[in-house]
Amino acid sequence: MTLKLRPCAFFSKKLSPAERKYDVGNRELLAVVEALKVWRHWLEGAKHPFLIWTDHRNLEYIRQAKRLNPRQARWAMFFTRFVFTLSYKPGSQNVKADALSQLYDTEERSMDPTPILPASCLVAPVVWELDADIERASRAEPSWCPAGRLYVPSAVRDRLIYWAHTSPSSGHPGIGRTMRCLDGRYWWPTLAKDVRIYVSSCSVCAQCKAPRHLPRGKLQPLPVPQRPWSHLSVDFLTDLPPSQGYTTILVVVDRFSKSCHLLPLPGLPTALQTAEALFTHVFRHYGVPEDIVSDRGPQFTSRVWKAFMEHLGISVSLTSSFHPESNGQVERVNQDVGRFLRSYCQDRPGEWAKFVPWAEMAQNSLRHSSTNLTPFQCV
């Protein structure tokens, strides 16, 4: 009577991209190595030798081979920890090992066109994971909520504030702006208090935000423009670490809508290059402005800059020397952009260039306290 062999364990593993490039012999040998690693606690130091069956005949000679590549040499050293024999078994007889990988089903099944998700879960082409979590948590914690808003249960509030405060489209804004991101759609009784506590304890904001203090003396603000992109403020954000070939950002701010454009540059440009950048990225979209406020950098005091602006009919306004408060709007945007880049690139300063579009979107998407609108809405 012959004994019937029965399996006591199964093991399978997906090949990595590098392992998929092995030839068939190395892949078969890899299967032996991985199996020995998985069942090492049974096989290493075993009292009796064990047998390995393979349907690849060349593996029978691997332990007597004179020439091995570096990978096979490492595996051969690993094999010395075991006492085993490799034996060839034709694939037609080695059916148990290949059964799972060679299943073939001839039965034709009809395809069910019904979608997996019920219609109640389909809100739009994109369903936010947080909204789904809020809906599930609301069933266990029902509560009254103002019309047009979604009540947020206590279990999801911290995650929702984290998403509104730290996502790349927000960029770690302050307490007021984070609250305005949420209160348009979500509601719970302690929304303002929870946002204030969360933002005040944010370690990234504490490390990256510039200090604030009240201005000394009375400010004399510049006249308020009457339409978007008619009066601009420009400045450079310099001395940035090299990133994708850029080290400088030209910051352009519309004094009416507070909208901004951030233009990465390979270095501090000349007057002509600055004028060309403004014409290419700003003037051709919004028209020629009436006035441009800038500091007294060499780009803005040169004859080329003055002649270019004079031909376009643009008046040039220069701030007082060593008095950046005269161009406070662009200086404030400089601080926000620097804070944004520090928040997301503090561990990888060489990658700030790819976050510049996100910084511009965040700056133009957040509601401004002076207009009570976002720059996108205002424009």
TrEMBL record:
Chaperone recorded as keyword: no
Family matches, as PROSITE patterns: INTEGRASE
Sequence ranges assigned to domain Integrase catalytic in this UniProt record: 224-379
Example of a GO MF term: hydrolase activity
Matches recorded under Pfam families: Integrase_H2C2, RT_RNaseH, rve
One of the GO BP terms on file: DNA integration
Coiled coil: none
Hydrolase as UniProt keyword: yes
Keywords from the named record: Endonuclease, Hydrolase, Nuclease, Nucleotidyltransferase, RNA-directed DNA polymerase, Transferase
Protein name, per record: Gypsy retrotransposon integrase-like protein 1
Native species: Oncorhynchus kisutch (Coho salmon)
